[in-house]
Design brief:
CATH topology of the largest domain: Arc Repressor Mutant, subunit A
CATH class of the largest domain: Mainly Alpha
Distance between the termini: 19 Å
Shape: globular
Number of strands: 0
Order of helices and strands: HHHHHHHHHH
Helix content: 55-70%
Number of helices: 10
Oligomer: single chain
Largest sheet: none
CATH architecture of the largest domain: Orthogonal Bundle
Length: 232
């Protein structure tokens, strides 16, 4: 990242190459749309490039990157929620009810035969279960399970306390168990899914990221502040 700060184009290309797929995966699981996930990943890299002169080495680069990603995801979710509210108002000529995805997943499980699901079906069930979590729970779980970040690193990325991160992860696992465990009991999902439901987040950071060069417990969602320095 120090090379990027010094306007090294090759270093920036390497940074994008290293993190692009991982960012898209995070956004797919927190925002839920592949096309939008790719756009949001590009937005993160654009913000990083604009802020490159203000970068100061210290914490892991990935912590800084995922803090930006968290802010971008939060903005995208709020924008999507506003559009959804407009659509509901526009369509509310009669009575309508919105059924939570978690409830839909439970009802679907009661209708499906007791068989081992194929890979596509398993992925869809896990996706629906992830969709039942709020955005902060999903982000915390993604950073913990799939990025291997510690509580402290996740807290720094999401600008929350360590205790708040532990609470988010605990509630996320409880919610996922409620949806996924019945599938495992019926033999439709492999027991390996249990790995996602178990606590494995280290309390402290690991060895850290190499620099890129050319060689509080709140139960309600709240707006997340943009990064210091005006990463708009």
């Amino acid at each position: 990242m120090l090379e990027v700060r010094d306007d090294n184009a090759a270093a920036f290309e390497e940074l994008v190459s290293r993190y692009q797929v991982r960012l898209i995966s995070v956004f797919e699981n927190t925002v839920g749309r592949q096309g939008q996930a790719e756009d949001l990943a590009q937005e993160v890299f654009l913000r990083i490039y604009r802020a490159r002169k203000r970068y100061q080495p210290g914490a892991r680069f990935s912590t800084w990157l995922y803090r930006i990603a968290h802010n971008v995801a939060s903005n995208a979710r709020r924008s999507l929620a506003r559009r959804h509210e407009v659509n509901i108002v526009a369509q509310s000529t009669g009575q309508m009810s919105v059924q939570p995805l978690s409830q839909m997943a439970k009802e679907a499980s009661a209708l499906m035969p007791a068989r081992q699901l194929d890979q596509v079906e398993r992925a869809e069930i896990v996706r629906a279960a992830m969709e039942s979590l709020n955005q902060r729970q999903r982000m915390a779980l993604m950073l913990s399970k799939f990025e291997g970040m510690s509580y402290e690193e996740i807290a720094s990325s999401m600008e929350l306390s360590v205790s708040a991160i532990k609470s988010l992860l605990s509630r996320a696992r409880v919610n996922l168990r409620e949806i996924l465990v019945p599938y495992m009991h019926d033999g439709m999902l492999p027991e390996s899914i249990n790995d996602v439901l178990q606590e494995s987040t280290p309390d402290v950071a690991g060895s850290g990221d190499a620099e890129i060069d050319v060689h509080h417990d709140n139960h309600q969602d709240q707006d997340e502040a943009e990064m210091e320095g005006g990463l708009q």
